[in-house]
Every structure is written in C-alpha cells, then in structure tokens.
Amino acid sequence: MILSLAGFAQKAMPEERPPYVLVVHGGAGAMEWENMSDEARRGYEAGLLEALSAGEEVLKKGGTSIDTVVAAITRLEDNPLFNAGRGAVYNEAGHIAHDASIMEGKQGKAGAVGMVGIIKHPILAAKAVMDDGRHVFLVGRGAELFASSKGVDTVSPDYFYTKERHDAWEKTRKTRLEREFPLQPKGTVGAVALDMNGNLAAGTSTGGMHYKRVGRLGDSPVIGAGTWADNNSCAVSATGHGEYFIRNTVASDISARMKYLGQSLQEAANEVVMVRLATLDAGGGIIAVDRKGNIAMPFNTAGMFRGYVRAGEKPYVAVSKEK
Ligand code: ASP
C-alpha cells in the first residue's frame, strides 16, 4: 500500500561538495514498520551503522567509491536481518536465489549476477563480472562458475538459511490465502558513494521477492532499474516491487531527468518514487547521491532502512518515516 508523501526524506544541500558521501539502504518492503520493537529497530540501525563504518573506512583512506560500495554491501550481506546474502528470502520451490549488480560512474562499467545460490557475497560476483568486462550480466550456474574462477568465495546453500525466512516460506506454502499475495519485497540492500576523486558508484544485492517464481529476476541486478551510476548526474540504488522498477527503469530515469530536464536530484528522485511509482501503487524507495554530494532517500512505503555519512559528520540512520 502506498502511503502519503510524508516519506519524503531530503537532506540539506551542502554548499560545497563534501570530500566524500556514502548512503546505504536495507530495504523498504513489507515490515512491521509501525509496531517494530525498540530492540528490533536497534538491530537494524546497528546493521546500517556497521555498513556505513565499513564503507567510510575505505573513503577516509582515499579509496574508490566502488570499493566503498562493496565494503558496505558485503557487511549487509553478512547480516541475517537483511534480505541479501545470509537471511535472504526463499522462492516458491524453497530455494534461495540471489541477485546483485554494481556500476561505476566514471566510465559506466557495470556487472551483474542473477539467480546465484552458492556465492557467499553476490556483490563480489557482480564486481568480478564488471572487472572482467567481457559481459555485463551472468545468471545461474554460469555466473557461479565464473565467480568462483575469479576467486569469489562459494558456500553451501545452507549457509544462507535463517529460521525466520524459512518459516515465512513454509507459512506461505501452506496458506492458500496468503499465496495470493506472496510477492513482498523484504529488505534488499544497497549502497551509493561519492569518493574524494568525485567518482560515483552504486550497488544493490538481494534475495528478491518472498516466494517469487523459480527463474524470476527482479530489478536489483538490472542495470538502469535497480542500480545506476553516472558521474555526470548521480548514483542510485533501489528497493521495492521489482517488476515496476524494471518497467519504469527507475534508477536510470532519475539520472536522465537530471541530465535532460535539468532537475535537481531531489526533484528527479521524488518525481519517480513519490509520483510515478506511487501512482502505479508500486511500493519502494531509492537512495541516491549526486556528483555534488547531495543526498536523496525518498520512499513511498511506511519505512525504509536507510542511513548516510558525509566526511566529518556523524552517521545518520533511520527506519520509519521522519515525524
Ligand atoms: N527489488 C527487489 C526485487 O524485486 C526486492 C526488494 O527490494 O526488497 O527483487
């Protein structure tokens, strides 16, 4: 269900470009946003802070935005609270199939993997595809074989198991009624960064939609839909009902609006998420940073796990709407 525009989350425009910026998200999907216990909230916030801190370590040392995005996302993939890596959701057949993508804004290089089941950190497999450069998008067994040939760690599928996600799958399987509404986004993760050299990067990693069909790919690994980076405009990572994000090429549309319509990051992001997607009843949100270090984090759901850090500032994290 789409809620009011209160989900607008805009951050003050810095006068000058900050030396670096990192923004992360942990999904905007079906959650007990309003009734979340303090303990649960603190758990998610701690996970976001850990990812911000891992990414900021890279930025502080003058590292690249790509390495920053990887550092932040691998932390979130390790955290079973989020729907990426450990803790990912199950598909109809009771398997976990991960999707991930990454893009850098200087040359527009990108890499993505879909439906991988044994890659410990799917974002590293996406990066291996990007670094190799021959292809952009590999899926299934071919993606797994390619990633492991590049030294990316593989694990048994049991590594990703969490009781909560497995119980949710079991419940949906048993309950005919719920099966009619199974496609719920649950907590995809993503990061966007601007490094000291002014380079932008974006990455997204997910188990996809709860109880998705076998073979289904969402927006997260689709360059232009779930992930986009262009040094001339912005870097974007999305979360939400992937089918709509693909149909509306959400991430690249925000960048295109900035480039071709001269919109600010805030205007472009709000128009896509709060107007276009909201009109379609497509729940979700995005995080974005532009080349000047402006941040946008709009979402049209009741909450979105999100946070950012700018050079010299304390990190900010939030879960539900700001009052
Ligand atoms: N966008 C993801 C997908 O459709 C789900 C999510 O963001 O939670 O696979």
Descriptive overview:
The chain is an alpha+beta fold and 323 residues long. The protein is 33% helix and 21% strand. It is built from nine helices and twelve strands. It has helices spanning 38-60, 65-78, 122-132, 140-149, 163-174, 176-179, 242-247, 250-261, 265-279; strands at residues 21-25, 98-104, 110-116, 137-139, 189-194, 200-206, 227-229, 234-240, 284-290, 295-296, 303-310, 316-320. The strands form two sheets. It has an eight-stranded mixed sheet. Residues 3-10 have low confidence and may be disordered. The structure holds aspartic acid. The site of aspartic acid has 16 residues, from strand 8.
Topology (SSEs and partners):
Layout: E1 21-25, H1 38-60, H2 65-78, E2 98-104, E3 110-116, H3 122-132, E4 137-139, H4 140-149, H5 163-174, H6 176-179, E5 189-194, E6 200-206, E7 227-229, E8 234-240, H7 242-247, H8 250-261, H9 265-279, E9 284-290, E10 295-296, E11 303-310, E12 316-320
Parallel strand pairs: 3-4
Antiparallel strand pairs: 1-5, 1-11, 2-3, 2-6, 5-6, 7-8, 8-9, 9-10, 11-12
The site of aspartic acid has 16 residues, from strand 8.
Q: Give the overall form.
A: globular
Straight-line N-to-C gap: 19 Å
Main beta sheet strand tally, sense and closure = 8 strands, mixed
Task: Report the mean per-residue pLDDT as an integer.
Answer: 91
Per DSSP, what share of the residues sits in E-state strands of 2 or more residues?
A: 15-25%
Listed once per kind, the bound small molecules are: aspartic acid
Radius of gyration, CA atoms, in whole angstroms: 18 Å
Total count of strands: 12
Instruction: Please write the string of helix (H) and strand (E) elements.
Output: EHHEEHEHHHEEEEHHHEEEE
Tally of separate helices: 9
Q: What are the segments in which pLDDT stays under 50 over at least 5 consecutive residues?
A: 3-10
What structural class do helix, strand and pairing data support?
Answer: alpha+beta
Q: Helix share of residues?
A: 25-40%
Strand arrangement across the biggest beta sheet: 4-3-2-6-5-1-11-12
